[in-house]
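$ ./design --mode recover --in tokens.txt
reading tokens...
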């Protein structure tokens, strides 16, 4: 009877989901608070930006009251948060359209850009990391290491401008700005996306390649790998048959986090190429003092990034059977 009354101890997967879910929600709340306070501290006045310099004090006061800008900051934040959790981000101050109506097409464009970049980036970076681990300390390993360090040191906007100069200005192969609508068939899509995608691949592959190489070399330092080397098994077979499956957990985390960082990197790349995505919308909204749009963009970026981090750790947990085994002494 006493055994029936015992409460079952949650499994490691359940512990992970609950703990990371709570921490993710807390992080999201803190990020939204920082975004809201940051936009409130931007120089200039939203009402003045909308009405212009010729606006009368009475008109400014009436507009501030209509927009709720005369309320205390904490009340404005709580009201905005309650509406945002219901999916209502309000009305754009610049276009007077619902924020969601403007936001969703731009979000789709950004996800398309990041997704296409990930399709090319992950095989190149993970394959390069595996090759560097197989031929460790060879000329190929040194070459990949040098290029990785070179691209890691280059800011994203510089990579974009170099590609524009080389392939748009000098060679004329692609348009310098990705402002055309994503329509017209596969060739039109490829023309529009080529330079932004290439920029993201160059930026993201260096970090992913180095992390993949490090993950595999860490597994290669295990005792069972050293025993396999003593038995005369080739290094390539050891990596592909033994080290790579055991490094799968780390590689999965690296891949998901790479996609998360791509979604963040698109902000700079979209500005460089005038790509109609969420990042460009956010920067343009800052210039127009469209605070509701800025807050909604920041909320979505934070939600996507926190969600991708959760997914990376969750997949790593599922890929590692040892992390799913309950600790000794747990009550069954």
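writing sequence...
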């Amino acid at each position: 009877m006493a055994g029936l009354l015992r409460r079952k101890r949650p499994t490691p997967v359940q512990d992970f989901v609950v703990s990371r879910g709570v921490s993710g929600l807390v992080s999201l709340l803190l990020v939204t608070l920082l975004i809201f306070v940051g936009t409130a501290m931007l120089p200039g006045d939203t009402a003045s930006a909308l009405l212009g310099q010729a606006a009368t004090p009475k008109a400014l006061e009436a507009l501030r009251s209509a927009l709720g800008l005369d309320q205390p900051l904490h009340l404005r934040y709580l009201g905005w948060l309650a509406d945002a959790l219901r999916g209502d981000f309000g009305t754009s101050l610049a276009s007077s359209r619902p924020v969601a109506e403007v936001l969703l097409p731009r979000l789709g464009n950004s996800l398309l850009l990041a997704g296409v970049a990930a399709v090319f980036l992950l095989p190149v970076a993970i394959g390069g990391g595996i090759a560097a681990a197989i031929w460790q300390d060879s000329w190929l390993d040194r070459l990949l290491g040098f290029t990785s360090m070179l691209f890691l040191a280059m800011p994203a906007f510089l990579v974009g401008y170099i590609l524009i100069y080389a392939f748009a200005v000098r060679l004329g192969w692609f348009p310098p700005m990705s402002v055309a609508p994503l329509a017209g068939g596969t060739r039109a899509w490829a023309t529009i996306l080529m330079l932004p995608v290439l920029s993201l691949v160059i930026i993201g592959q260096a970090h992913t390649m180095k992390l993949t190489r490090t993950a595999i070399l860490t597994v290669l330092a295990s005792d069972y790998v050293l025993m396999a080397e003593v038995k005369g098994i080739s290094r390539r077979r050891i990596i592909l048959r033994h080290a790579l499956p055991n490094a799968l957990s780390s590689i999965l985390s690296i891949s998901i986090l790479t996609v998360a960082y791509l979604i963040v990197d698109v902000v700079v790349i979209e500005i460089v190429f005038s790509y109609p995505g969420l990042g460009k919308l956010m920067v343009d909204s800052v210039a127009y003092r469209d605070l509701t749009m800025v807050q909604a963009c920041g909320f979505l970026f934070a939600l996507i990034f926190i969600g991708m981090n959760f997914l990376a750790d969750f997949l790593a947990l599922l890929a590692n059977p040892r992390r799913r085994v309950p600790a000794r002494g747990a009550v069954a």
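exit 0
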